[in-house]
Design goal:
- By secondary structure, this protein is an all-alpha fold.
- About 90% of the residues lie in helices and about 0% in strands.
Length: about 60
């Protein structure tokens, strides 16, 4: 007759599972944050280019 895992083994398995879940969530959040910051940087660059082009057009019309 086989018995299931002991209370100690079950505790270790639960702790390991929670640790793996926490690591996966941390990596996911970090990668999402990197992509978001990259997008913000691209938006700021595009805005800067637009302002520069607009200033150049105004300067030419003067």
């Amino acid at each position: 007759m086989e018995m299931g895992p002991s209370l100690w083994e079950a505790s270790i398995m639960q702790t390991t599972s929670l640790t793996i879940l926490a690591l996966v969530l941390a990596v996911t959040i970090t990668l999402t944050g990197c992509n978001t910051m990259k997008g913000v940087g691209q938006d700021v660059s595009a805005t800067g280019r637009s302002v520069t082009q607009g200033a150049g057009a105004v300067q030419k019309s003067m």
